[in-house]
């Protein structure tokens, strides 16, 4: 699709300087601008690129003052970064606005399907499943029996939703993620017999889950991701875990069974959390930390493995780095002491 500079300026409620009819068909970084593309200047460090960019249209701030000729048409707005983000959102909506049910998809006769859905090639919807309005089911998605998918949710290619899973509205599940697989439970006292996992997974509204994540079903009851949870790629959530509202997980996070995590927490990459713990609201955990006991005070930051208060960890780390020097000094003092006693 193509838009004129005037149409984009009107959309952003900006003031245009230059050719109002220049056509725009793509977005670009300012240093990689091409004819027919639109870019933006928000960081002053990138100002030199503005004078040599090949982009046809650039969004700048209202108070920007040029110090050299600019070939591109400009749109002046209050906040260039926010304006460009708005364009990105619109572009994404247009790109992902797929509708229609492929003849090569398979939807059970007992399933309930809402309006304006998209079901791509080789997607499958099981018995008694309920699919809401405007749901996007990309190719090779599997949705098991009795699953529920809320309105405006997108399941990208290859997502697997096991039976009885409940997913809310406005969720995004990226490729390769498996939701509702069995929890990891075996009985070592009974010849390692598998413990049946008969619970489910509940994902509330406005949740986004990255690629290749695994969310295990509960043994009994539900594994729950509350409203607004955001997962990066490669996250594993074990059986009966509950993750509170608006909590963020960076890549490679692992949470063991039955742990309860509070609201508005932030976990950096490769954080591991032991099972059957409580993590208070607004907790921050730094990268590669291991949580081995419950965190009961809200708003604290932890680091290390086993993790403890970040400020104490930083002070202790000064001593960690000096251990070798301290050992050498102790050894030298011991030798001097031995020589004196002789």
Proportion of residues in helical segments: 10-25%
Number of domains: 2
Number of helices: 5
- Characterize the biggest β-sheet: 10 strands, parallel
Lateral strand order in the biggest sheet: 9-12-15-18-21-26-29-32-35-38
Can you tell me the CATH topology of the largest domain?
UDP N-Acetylglucosamine Acyltransferase, domain 1
> CATH-wise, what's the superfamily of the largest domain?
Hexapeptide repeat proteins
Determine the strand fraction and express it as a percent band. 25-35%
Compute the average pLDDT. Answer: 95
Distance between the termini: 91 Å
Q: Oligomerization state of this entry?
A: single chain
Query: What is the rounded Rg?
Result: 27 Å
Class of the largest domain in CATH? Mainly Beta
Class computed from helices, strands and strand pairing? alpha/beta
Shape: flat
What does this structure look like?
By secondary structure, the chain is of the alpha/beta class. It has two domains: 3-95, Udp-n-acetylmuramoylalanyl-d-glutamate--2,6- Diaminopimelate Ligase, Chain: A, domain 1; 100-314, Hexapeptide repeat proteins (UDP N-Acetylglucosamine Acyltransferase, domain 1), CATH 2.160.10.10. The protein has five helices and 40 strands. The strands form seven sheets. The chain has a ten-stranded parallel beta sheet with strand order 9-12-15-18-21-26-29-32-35-38, with no helix packed on it. It starts with a strand and ends with a helix. The relative contact order is 0.06.
